[in-house]
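Page 37, continued from 36.
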């Protein structure tokens, strides 16, 4: 399904019992709503699930401009408005987790709880040239020039070897990400820093991180946990950046246990 929000088209899927609490699922950079496939069966039994393609990704519009994390969070709030959803449990991985932090800061009354996976609360200034380089590569050479390196950060070598079909599917998602959308979101990420704001949050929060995540390591997750008052952190053994895929069973158990307490 598609809907217009704030002048752009957003592709979304809404499933599960109509009267159940709503869980929003927000994916990573160069991902799509399909990143959440391993969670869908578990969630749909008890929750109304809203997953969507971020601005610049999948079937959503990809305006060729600089994005901000506030813009990406406003897309979620606008999507909720258009669908008549007052409040949600928000689950985001990587950039999706950054969006969740900003959304909870913007409209705390509309975020009942947060599940933040493999994410951070700030990008160090010395990392910004790396993001600039990724933007230049995407624009000049296309997403194919970034796909293999991205997969190596996202999934462990053992998982990629043992799960070639899943790995191929994820690579296809990376390859079909519009370079303009990728670049816009890279700019939002490179300027992201809410570490001094998170102390305002009292939203119940579960933070999960892959034990071997090279992109947003355990230390980054711990920084988020220390900043948010009402939060807990769990490491998922052996997993890389896409812990919801590589450690799906443990991820889902923790996710459902946390949601059931809210």
């Amino acid at each position: 399904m598609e809907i217009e929000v704030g002048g752009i088209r957003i592709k979304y899927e809404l499933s599960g019992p109509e009267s159940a609490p709503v869980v929003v699922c927000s994916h990573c950079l160069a991902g799509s709503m399909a990143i959440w496939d391993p969670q869908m069966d578990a969630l749909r039994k008890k929750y109304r699930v809203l997953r969507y393609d971020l601005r610049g990704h999948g079937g959503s519009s990809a305006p060729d401009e600089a994005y901000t994390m506030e813009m990406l969070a406003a897309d979620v709030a606008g999507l909720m408005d258009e669908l008549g959803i007052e409040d949600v449990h928000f689950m985001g991985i990587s950039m999706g987790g950054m969006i969740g932090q900003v959304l909870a800061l913007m409209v705390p009354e509309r975020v009942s709880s947060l599940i933040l996976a493999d994410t951070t609360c700030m990008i160090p200034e010395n990392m910004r040239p790396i993001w600039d380089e990724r933007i230049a590569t995407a624009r000049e050479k296309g997403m194919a020039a970034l796909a293999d390196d991205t997969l190596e950060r996202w999934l462990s070598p053992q998982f990629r070897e043992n799960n070639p079909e899943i790995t191929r599917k994820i690579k296809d998602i990376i390859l079909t990400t519009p370079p303009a959308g990728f670049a816009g979101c890279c700019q939002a990420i490179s300027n992201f820093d809410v570490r001094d704001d998170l102390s305002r949050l009292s939203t119940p929060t579960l933070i999960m991180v892959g034990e071997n995540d090279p992109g947003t390591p355990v230390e980054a997750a711990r920084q988020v946990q220390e900043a948010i008052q009402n939060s807990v952190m769990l490491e998922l053994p052996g997993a890389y950046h896409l812990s919801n895929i590589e450690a799906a069973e443990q991820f889902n158990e923790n996710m459902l246990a946390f949601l059931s307490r809210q």
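Residues 233 and 241 are 15 Å apart (CA to CA). Flag for discussion at group meeting. The radius of gyration is 17 Å.
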